[in-house]
User: What shape does this take?
Amino acid sequence: MSNNTKITPQAENFAQWYQDVITAADLAENSSVRGCMVIKPYGYAIWENIRKELDSQFQKQGVENAYFPLLIPEKFLQKEAEHIKGFSPELAVVTYGGGKELTEPLVIRPTSETIIYDAFSRWIHSYRDLPLRINQWANVVRWEMRPRLFLRTTEFLWQEGHTAHATKREARQYALKILKKVYKPFAEKHLAMAVIDGQKTESEKFAGALSTYSIETLMRDGKFLQSGTSHDLSDHFAKAFNVRYLSEDGTQQYVYNTSWGVSTRLIGGLVMSHGDDKGIVLPPKIAPHKIVIVPIANSAPSDVTDAAKKMYRHLKKYNPIFDDRLEVRPGEKFYEWEKKGVPLRLELGPKDLANNKVVLVRRDTGEKSIVANDDVKKSVENMLKDIQNNLLLRSQKLLETKARRVDTWDEFVREINAGNYVLAHWSGDAAIERQIKEETKATIRCIPFKAEKEKGLCIKSGKPSRQRVVFGRAY
Amino acid sequence: MSNNTKITPQAENFAQWYQDVITAADLAENSSVRGCMVIKPYGYAIWENIRKELDSQFQKQGVENAYFPLLIPEKFLQKEAEHIKGFSPELAVVTYGGGKELTEPLVIRPTSETIIYDAFSRWIHSYRDLPLRINQWANVVRWEMRPRLFLRTTEFLWQEGHTAHATKREARQYALKILKKVYKPFAEKHLAMAVIDGQKTESEKFAGALSTYSIETLMRDGKFLQSGTSHDLSDHFAKAFNVRYLSEDGTQQYVYNTSWGVSTRLIGGLVMSHGDDKGIVLPPKIAPHKIVIVPIANSAPSDVTDAAKKMYRHLKKYNPIFDDRLEVRPGEKFYEWEKKGVPLRLELGPKDLANNKVVLVRRDTGEKSIVANDDVKKSVENMLKDIQNNLLLRSQKLLETKARRVDTWDEFVREINAGNYVLAHWSGDAAIERQIKEETKATIRCIPFKAEKEKGLCIKSGKPSRQRVVFGRAY
Assistant: This one.
């Protein structure tokens, strides 16, 4: 399944570049069903790594996995007024089952608050059953008019965590904890993506939530990607689904819920955070193969191939690829694995063998090092760490470089149009927020947690404001 | 979430017993959507263990994971005539999406041959692309009129493997390999379930297959559970979806496909293979927790609790439960963990502590052993092995005990009604097979691989037959 996709330069056409590098790396493709993608083995292996790491993080937060039905009675969604209003335009509806028209239509879950809290209403009886912390790894369907691989697909894979707590305060803190202690460090340490964390505005929050918190990451074209969200649902769904518990003082109380999720969209984020004109660049911690080993030999078996094979066994823990194909020239191999973003390449030719050396080439910088045989394992380990750090540093630098503190509307428009993002004052008026979006396509990505309290005047309306918010274009 | 379900004795009402033990062990429950179950954390943990083990087995067979769309155009299913005939009564059909009636209905995958081979037709070009070996872990929907938890649910979780090969022979061998080298040993060694493997008759084979192979396991009530199937699809789907490759001699050839799957139904199989009147019994290799540690103490902290905690850390690799609840009496704890089928219980009381001993109790036999502190780890290791072996031996014994070689129709009916299964001659006539099913509810589970060639006369029609087949009632 080799593939010779030519990659459009990033600077020339970012959207086409994105499409090209995904094809070139063999991550995913459009299926015959509009809006639904096929995640190919290499793309899926990245998702499995994301899943594995997050799963162990959730466990540390006391979360257990379970599985809830794909199909939800339409009337369940209607129980929470904001929820159905938000999701109604995106639903896929099953009207026939087992050869008969259904008396009651079922929707394919766009998210599972309703069906899960229906279960919680059976599971929770007393304060001893709280907190209840559940997660599911599942597919969801949200009808998508302008699909793009990973970023916007009608079906996508995700995890959705759902918890129930005895108090409003505890729920809010848990929603924040998942964002700050799981999603943010995961994005930074594993995906090497710099993050702005904060709260969504009323117009951008989850349909049915009291508050939504998010991590926002910046793509190389200056647009944001909302990469993970955590919702404080307060008692909104508990009231709709009658989820109550007997408190220690013997009274019936509603629980307070949180829900939180990340999806296969993160893979799109990885691509647009780190990729370059040669293809995708994978952070070592999430790369299916951390190194590719290429013996430079014209025949096999050969001394070179044997030595390279030994190296392969030596480096087993990095799940290396051993590319000893004879019908493909070394240059083509390099090109192929660069497209796939393998963090490190080890080359071994006859001269290297004679000198007891190998060549190591970094994907992120292209830097070449010649390393003594005995030091290979240590060098590989160090370089992988360096690559991981360097990718995060680059991402942090991008986030700094593209930031503009702006105090006039003219500047605002100019900076947004120049592909930057803006820290500006906003008074909290949703109508102004909408107007800004209509005029510039910039939305408030979040009200950042880390912002000095600073009095000012709204960039558009001139009304008094207490802090700057993050405006930017987004996927 | 404690629960006080009373368990109906197995001998009194097997179906009710099954329902009761699932509730008592907190494995799963019916949801508000008829036919769709909620898999609760303990049940899901078993599925995760099944998944993890099978996944590593598939990898050894050169299989890669990927993910394909949930929604399939209805016309795709119609491309293979037998396939649509078989699945049409079970389909869930989406007719609305994004607020509009769809011009073309989409079905929720009941299985994914069609959408996957559609992708294969884009992925496969030359003989170099073969064999192609793909697996997906996914949910599927088959409308179910008589739902039962795990055994028959409208939605279930499964894996479906799909491969493409250059020759008919290679495909057939691969289908057999998955059955004999993966499914059968997995069922025996991990699930401790004895297996009859063989070929399905024409009437019982997969809709669209040339041949279906299956592993059949015997439940404690004498009924079979089809526990895994592997299909030789020949070129049936390759022709329907135009999956062709350029062969080494330069001609265009159709590929040959296999598909194979096991599902959450296996959990129902585990329950009905090993469970007893106290609850479920889990084979150690698949149990989420292999041991529960119960300090017998009236207060905490105490010397006993401290010593038990030490034991807990010492036995960490068995993912032990540490049950030091003070508000629950030891007897109740024993009862609770027996219901949940935890293979081994470790009790530690003040007397044991004084004597440097612990008590170990096996879930399968109820046998109690007193073990010196220093030997605990070794004893636990050995007992878990013993339990695993014993469960398989019991399952093998059941398979032998319930077998009847039968040569007259009267005997056949008597043995089937007595809850046994029958090895009898059958000439291959589908009409007779149907007639037997109508009269006795017994179906041909398989034409077993391991059967002496033996000439005889069909048990019902008297027509000549070349080997005995396995007749039995089944889930």
About this structure: The longest helix of chain B spans residues 376-401. Chain B touches chain A through 57 residues (CB under 8 Å). The mean pLDDT of chain B is 96. The radius of gyration of chain B is 25 Å.
